[in-house]
Amino acid sequence: MLTFLPKQRFRQLVSEHNTDKHVRKLTTWNQFVAVLYAQATSKDSLREIETGLNIHNNIWYHLGVGSVARSSLAEANAKRNYQVYEKLFYSLLERCHEITPHREFKFKNPLYSFDASIVNLCLSLFDWAKYRTTKGALKLHVLLDNRTAIPELVNITDGKVADVTMFKQINLERLEKGSIITFDRAYIDYEWWKEINERELFFVSRTKSSQNIFVTGQHKNARLEKNILADDIVMFWSYDVIEKEKYPGKLRRIKYWDNANKKELTFLTNNFKLTARQIADIYRDRWQIELFFKWIKQNLKIKTFLGTSKNAVMTQIWIAMIYYLLLAYIKFQTKFKKSLLELTRMIREVLLFRRDLIDYCL
Hints:
- By secondary structure, the protein is α+β, with helices and mostly antiparallel strands.
- The protein folds into 2 domains: 2-92 and 312-361, no CATH class; 100-292, Transposase Inhibitor Protein From Tn5, Chain A, domain 1 (Alpha-Beta Complex), CATH 3.90.350.
- It has 14 helices and 10 strands.
């Protein structure tokens, strides 16, 4: 599994951050292998990692491991700069882009979903992550590529950071023109919507009851398809000229009847070409990011931690995200037809046996 990693880039990052200075045994690579092993085998403590790897000490040489002492690993997690693993994640992501197949949509536009999820922490142990008076938390902000189900962007902040603040950190220049970003009502920011529109990108969102929306007419190609109640052209209205100019253009408002939940949903978009039904389907596909958060919380070790310092927690989360990319990369490379969960279970059982993964995935 380690052969899928961009090792030359890893060495560059180690040199860039000087993380192996004065290190005798437990190198940055050694630390990475140990924490990745803990992710793959669901180890809950440093003692479990040490015991598990000591049983297989005959393969240390092949893994590039020099030590698995839990005291050394604890110190490395607490002090070694986690940004090495954050940057390794994005390097591996570039490699994933080269080979990951895309899901088929009824339209050609790339589709992304943006959302955030809370990781609760015990405030008495993680006092640097204060969220509320008696609670601690981190927040994962993710831009998910719906076509491949892999994250395009991951930001990790403390729980107090507003969702919309990180939404505006998206580098729109990296997205292909015509891409669609879908998000819920927590991300209403008219100036940012204007920026998205000016970049020739599209968005699909839900409306809030507090939004002052004025109907100017019906969409010229409106076809009241099944479950589509209305397809209107709208504008934001405000007596405050400055507020009104934050998004002075026209938008499209679509009202849709959700049979499953027996309620009416209202969407806003700056896309005037796709059908109303396609817009509704786009927002429904936003559920992919909810499934992503559910999957990583159930199958990766990002809710219990090997250390209590901020650096230790960030190290563990970034290596967990790297493991997710490795699983996706292996699944696509080997054309594994079963689920990612099934692949995870298989790797857990055979991780320390020296055989090609493709033998298990066929």
